[in-house]
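re: that chain from earlier
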Amino acid sequence: MKRSIIVAALTLSACSADAATFSYTCRVDGKSLKVKIDDTKNTLSWKGNTYRIKDEESCAKFGWRAERHGEAFNFCTATQGYADFQEGGKLVQCDQDR
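^ sequence. v structure.
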């Protein structure tokens, strides 16, 4: 019985740790680039840069406001693992990695 409780606790902690990290593949100028969001550390990684994030309420479903040294954008999610944001006036479209 004790062993079952320990296994269940370890499984739950592993699942909750994974749930705080989200990975997306985004298309930019014919290239596929990765976005990684760590909701525990409140960071978003994109093109070798790390942005501080906070929840963004203006997104239709859910999203984050990413900010770094005067740069900022809203990374907004939608249904079916889709997300997008504006970079330099261009729409960047992303799909969540599964």
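The longest strand covers residues 21-28.
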